[in-house]
Design brief:
Largest interface: A-B, 80 and 66 residues
Strand content of chain A: 15-25%
Strand content of chain B: 5-15%
Low-confidence stretches of chain A: 325-345
Number of helices of chain B: 21
Distance between the termini of chain B: 56 Å
Number of helices of chain A: 10
Structural class of chain A: alpha/beta
Structural class of chain B: alpha/beta
Number of strands of chain A: 14
Distance between the termini of chain A: 53 Å
Mean pLDDT of chain B: 85
Helix content of chain B: 40-55%
Radius of gyration of chain B: 34 Å
Number of domains of chain B: 3
CATH architecture of the largest domain in chain B: Orthogonal Bundle
CATH class of the largest domain in chain B: Mainly Alpha
Shape of chain A: globular
Order of helices and strands of chain A: EEEHEEHEHHHEHEHEEHHEEEEH
Oligomer: heterodimer
Strand order of the largest sheet of chain A: 6-7-8-3-9-10-13-12
Shape of chain B: elongated
CATH superfamily of the largest domain in chain B: MetI-like
CATH topology of the largest domain in chain B: MetI-like fold
Chain lengths: 345, 617
């Protein structure tokens, strides 16, 4: 089956402008390639500043890439006329992170869900109400809820409304940008189950953006780990999360809190914060926080190399995957300071 | 749409009706002179008397309303439509449009309105036809700027982006999404413009530059009455009353309309002072736990009646101990924390209960006494560090400020203590970072700064309300580890409020689970996680993503709102262990042994199900 969406060597720079400093491009996303097939769920994992939301917007054609291209059914988004792009939007929809700011506070939710139907004239106006009721039912709400305003709903219900609005145009691809991270854990489970169910029932392609590996693991077929706009590791979700080959994936995984005292992992506490995307470290961007860092890491950007079936990792060390169970490594601030000194020199 | 307040609507409608119906009313001719009866007092034929030329004052007043209102409404309406359109275009269509609309309005604003009016009237001559476009031009920049500012704040909202994702065109987004959301300020501007236009029109007519005499107008009437002020002072009163009454009514109408179109209007707060109803007197002796909270009940007055979002919550935190309070949003966990700090929102009040922090009762303290213990004995850290720090002060200065608020130390000593605190919370290179502004630091760093401020005066109790929710997973782990370390090093009590049971399970000594304003289970962390005795805790544990990658189990249904609490157990409608007797009376909090409390009458069944699940595994 041909993939629904293909991204090739996608990159996006933002111009950082200051009053007293030289303009310096901030590379939010660099050289990302991926494809999503119908009915496939891809997880994009990374912390804030990793470029995962920018990547989501690039794939939807909401932002123009600086390099590379996005193909939807073989059509390059950048070459489409604005009117054709608007028509294509019907097929790709976005679910937002914040269920509070993503709904128009001044309009009834039924009208907002009906917007997509009205814009693309999918059904006659007379049938629109019935269609909205069907969409509400699909996400587990009642038809009567359509007459209410967003503030009358809880966070989880609002997120369901956001999903219903995205489904209104009958999309083939859903980009979900941190759809559960603003919700309580107990409500997260409801929304995750809904997404999994919709994907199975409607054959949706799903691009699931999250910083939470545990959530991604339960929902996605493949996972792609981003750090500072670069792909660190990608592969089948079960494989990557069982035996991560990249130090960053290991650290992320070890940070997921566990309820089960017997399964409690040793934490790899990463020292410091991610470096600024305006001033990334040379070579491997993760080396300043990496517990396994080598001198050679600073010299060249490590390429993505295969480490298993469809599993690739951008680390020059090949012994990370064999490190066995996650071990406790408390990193000193030394490496961060080293980097700062280097920069000062 | 809420119901519109009736008073202003009726008032403005009456004025408008009179203005429209003046030609068919049985009034005498407003320009017919009767010099014989000049300045005659009110009579049966002339209710408000006659003016300096013997003309009927009532008739002139009503005809004047017609001209004043006509000019003002037409001018304000014209300015509103054109201005809002220009503001939308300037704000949403990009830089070129923005430059053209905003700079042209700047040019209009360069002329003082009165000078502009005099200039145009001198060139074109007085009269209604000149006045309307002139007043519209004068009030145009206000509308453009209000609309433009509204668009700027709305255009980056997620719901506008959502419309773009749906494939909506620009016109649709501007008219259907942005316009309703900036409607409130524009309506207010419209009311101000009508009122101001009535005044400016009257002023110009007063000067003889507006409505040309002998045609009646309020300004003209005031000018004429001024000449005969000594003989007939009442003549001055009528047009002035009409003028100010109309302006006030328009303002009231627009307030009412704005409130009515806002779907999430907050009801006006009654100005009642905070009254503590029934507080238990101090019974507990000093020494003992750092925090001893007994039977806290909080009430909130809403238009639909009084609700009780927190009821009968009792907690203890000992020094060096971490108590995690876990619950979903709306469970009352944050309100409980705020009540301890005396920071409840004005609509909420403590209805019953008492809280001793190191033996001192805090719920009944006045504001001055609260300020002394806030930050010193008990400190609180909030969810969003970006909004908790002052953006215009350096972080070192903000930490030093917290120190000097409670201790008489020199600025220099406070500064060096601040740097030391920043080092203690794990900020590398604290000397340099102390000089940074909040926007220069990441969320994790800022939360560390908030923690430094929280521990600055060595509080005995630290309340951390969802401190990691806004942070990334790896940073969450850092911050929780830091809080646990600090608690150990300083021997303070830590009250961790969170919705994430997994997050606190590794560090908490004891856990209290809250649901719908009540504690449903409380016990040592190990016992509660291994052997949950309340169905809600069990469901919470199951709703966390599994270790094996399976989809988490959702809890069906939603938390009942405080207005619609079930009669019996609050969790009963969502509970799988439900029996008829669960729904008859609220269950008590019972001790299931080993200080493990549960608010479930079937806890032994819940415990048995855990045990059987273990044997199966």
């Amino acid at each position: 089956m041909s993939p629904l969406l293909v991204a090739e060597g996608l990159g996006r720079d933002f111009a950082a402008r200051g009053w007293f400093t030289r303009p310096r491009p901030v590379r939010a996303v660099a050289d990302v390639s991926l494809s999503v097939a119908r009915g496939e769920a891809i997880g994009l994992v990374g912390e804030s500043g990793s470029g995962k939301s920018t990547l989501g917007r690039l794939l939807l054609g909401m932002l123009a890439p600086t390099s590379g291209r996005v193909l939807v059914d073989g059509q390059d988004l950048a070459r489409l006329l604005p009117s054709d792009l608007r028509r294509l939007r019907r097929r790709m929809q976005l679910v937002f992170q914040d269920p509070y700011s993503s709904l128009d506070p001044r309009r009834r939710v039924g009208a907002q869900i009906g917007d997509g139907i009205a814009i693309h004239r999918l059904v006659p106006a007379a049938e629109r109400e019935a269609r909205v009721a069907a969409l509400l039912a699909m996400v587990g709400l009642e038809a009567a809820h359509g007459a209410r305003y967003p503030h009358e709903f809880s966070g989880g219900q609002r997120q369901r409304i956001g999903i219903a609005r995205a489904l209104a145009t009958g999309p083939d691809l859903l980009v979900a940008d941190e759809p559960v991270s603003a919700l309580d854990v107990s409500v997260q489970a409801q929304v995750l189950r809904l997404l999994a169910d919709l994907r199975a029932r409607l054959g949706l392609g799903l691009l699931f953006i999250s910083h939470d590996l545990a959530v991604v693991r339960s929902l996605c077929d493949r996972v792609m780990v981003l750090y500072l706009g670069r792909v660190m590791e990608e592969g089948p979700a079960a494989e990557v999360l069982r035996a991560p080959h990249h130090p960053y994936t290991r650290a992320l995984l070890s940070a997921v809190p566990s309820l089960d005292p017997q399964h409690r992992r040793q934490r790899i506490l990463l020292a410091g914060e991610p470096p600024s995307p305006a001033d990334p470290p040379s070579g491997c961007v993760f080396r300043t926080r990496c517990p396994w860092v080598l001198p050679a890491c600073a010299t060249a950007v490590p390429p993505l190399r295969p480490v298993g079936d469809g599993h690739r990792s951008a680390c020059i060390r090949s012994d990370i995957g064999e490190a066995g169970p996650l071990v406790a490594q408390r990193l000193h601030d030394n490496t961060t300071r080293q980097h700062e000194q280097e920069r000062a020199e | 749409m809420r119901t519109l307040r009736l008073g202003p609507v009726v008032g403005v409608a009456a004025i408008a009706l009179v203005a429209v119906a003046v030609p068919v009313l049985p009034l005498s001719n407003p320009t017919a002179m009767d010099i014989m009866h000049r300045l005659a007092p009110p009579s049966a034929a002339h209710w408000l008397g006659q003016d300096g030329y013997g003309r009927d004052v009532l008739s002139r007043l009503l005809w004047g309303a017609r001209s004043s209102l006509g000019v003002a409404v037409a001018a304000a309406g014209l300015a509103c439509v054109i201005g809002t359109g220009l503001g939308l275009i300037g704000g949403y269509l990009g830089r070129g449009a923005e430059f053209l609309t905003m700079r042209s309005m700047d040019i209009v604003l360069c002329f003082p309105p009165l000078v502009l009016a005099l200039l145009v009237i001198t060139l074109l001559g007085p009269g209604t036809a000149t006045l309307i476009p002139l007043l519209a031009l004068v009030y145009l920049p206000g509308f453009v700027r209000v609309a433009y500012a509204g668009v700027l704040s709305v255009r980056n909202q997620n719901y506008v982006e959502a419309m773009r994702v749906l494939g909506a065109g620009r016109a649709r987004i501007m008219l259907r999404t942005i316009l309703p959301n900036i409607g409130g300020p524009i309506l207010v501007q419209f009311s101000l413009a009508i009122a101001a236009a009535i005044l400016l029109e009257s002023g110009l007519s007063f000067l003889g530059l507006g409505v040309v005499p002998p045609a009646p107008s309020w300004g003209g009437m005031i000018a004429a009455a001024r000449a005969t002020m000594a003989q007939a002072p009442l003549l001055l009163l009528w047009p002035c009353l009409a003028l100010s009454g109309t302006v006030l009514l328009f303002n009231a109408l627009c307030d009412a309309v704005r409130d009515a179109v806002d779907p999430q209007r907050v009801p006006r707060r009654r100005g009642a002072a905070r009254v503590l109803d029934a507080l238990a007197p101090g019974l507990v002796a000093a020494g003992g736990p750092v925090l001893d909270l007994c039977g806290l009940t909080i009430e909130i007055d809403t238009p639909a009646g009084t609700v009780c979002p927190v009821r009968d919550v009792s907690l203890q935190v000992h020094s060096g101990e971490i108590l995690a309070v876990v619950g979903e949003s709306g469970s009352g966990k944050s309100l409980s924390g705020l009540a301890l700090m005396g920071l409840l929102p004005p609509a909420a009040r403590v209805a019953a209960g008492a809280a001793w922090i190191e033996g001192q009762e805090v719920l009944r303290l006045d504001e001055a006494a609260l300020r002394r213990i806030r930050g010193r004995r008990v400190a609180m850290i909030f969810q969003d560090p970006h909004h908790s720090l002052d953006p215009v002060h350096r972080i070192g200065a903000q930490v030093a400020e917290a120190i000097r608020a409670h201790r008489p130390v020199s600025a220099r000593a406070a500064r060096s203590q601040a740097v030391e605190l920043l080092r203690q919370v794990g900020i590398s290179d604290p000397e340099r970072r102390a000089a940074a502004f909040p926007h220069e630091l990441s969320g994790g760093m800022l939360q560390r700064v908030m923690i430094a401020i929280g521990i600055a005066n060595g509080p005995r109790l630290l309340i951390a309300d969802e401190v990691t929710t806004a942070l990334d997973v790896t940073i969450q782990a850092q911050v929780i580890a830091l809080l646990a370390d600090l608690r150990r090093a300083r021997g303070m009590g830590l009250l961790l409020i969170t919705h994430n049971l997994a997050l606190v399970s590794e560090v908490a000594d004891r856990i209290a689970v809250m649901y719908a304003g009540e504690i449903v289970e409380q016990g040592s962390a190990a016992a509660l996680l291994a052997r949950p005795l309340h169905p809600y805790t069990q469901a919470l544990l199951r709703s966390a993503p599994g270790e094996d990658g399976s989809l988490p189990e959702a809890i069906q249904g939603t938390v009942p709102s405080p207005q619609a609490r079930p009669a019996g157990c609050a969790f009963a409608p969502r509970c799988t262990y439900r029996r008829p007797d669960c729904e008859t009376a609220p269950p008590p909090l019972v001790d299931a042994g080993g200080e493990h409390l549960t608010r479930c009458i079937r806890w032994y069944e819940v415990a048995a199900s855990v045990r059987s699940a273990e044997t199966v595994a």
